[in-house]
Write a structure and sequence with these properties.
By secondary structure, the chain is α/β, with parallel strands linked by helices. Helix content is 51%, strand content 12%. The protein is built from six helices and five strands; from the N terminus they run E-H-H-E-H-H-E-H-H-E-E. Helix 1 packs across helix 2, helix 1 crosses helix 3 and helix 3 packs antiparallel against helix 4. The protein is globular and about 40 Å long.
Length: 140
């Protein structure tokens, strides 16, 4: 599952890496190293920025905010804005997959609109949406 050039990364893999999750940090490190060595563009959205930064802001952990920003810059992660086109397409996905959360549908749509050829998440249910190949941490 490494035949992709633009990978859209959901929030949870970034959290696992930056917060050194015992279960996933090594897998995430290898994933990010692979992306750098193969010149794979990593894409995410403003949703990931918001979701990641909630904990540091709520707990006054400014060092985590700085670390996140440095990581995003170092990895040259492209951040997609959510606009009305993405919102409408996400609504169609939620209409089709009623158990998908709003944020997940927005993330999937942002991945499609930004022409990613892989979605990287740890939410296995998102594989039900078949237009965009989906990879989870278990696939690494």
């Amino acid at each position: 599952m490494t035949d992709f050039k633009r990978v859209y990364i959901d929030t949870s893999p970034i959290i696992y890496y930056l917060e050194h999750s015992a279960l996933y940090v090594d897998k995430m490190k290898k994933f990010f190293e692979m992306c750098l060595s193969r010149n794979i563009q990593i894409v995410t959205s403003v949703i990931t920025v918001e979701e990641y930064l909630v904990f540091p802001y709520a707990n006054g952990k400014m060092e985590l905010i700085d670390n996140f920003k440095r990581f995003m810059d170092y990895m040259n992660i492209e951040v997609v804005n959510i606009d009305s086109e993405i919102a409408e397409q996400a609504a169609k996905i939620r209409g089709q997959f009623k158990h998908f959360k709003g944020m997940d549908s927005l993330q999937i749509t942002a991945a499609k609109v930004s022409e990613c050829d892989m979605l990287f998440t740890n939410d296995k249910q998102l594989r039900q949406e078949k237009e965009l190949p989906c990879m989870t941490l278990d696939d690494l």
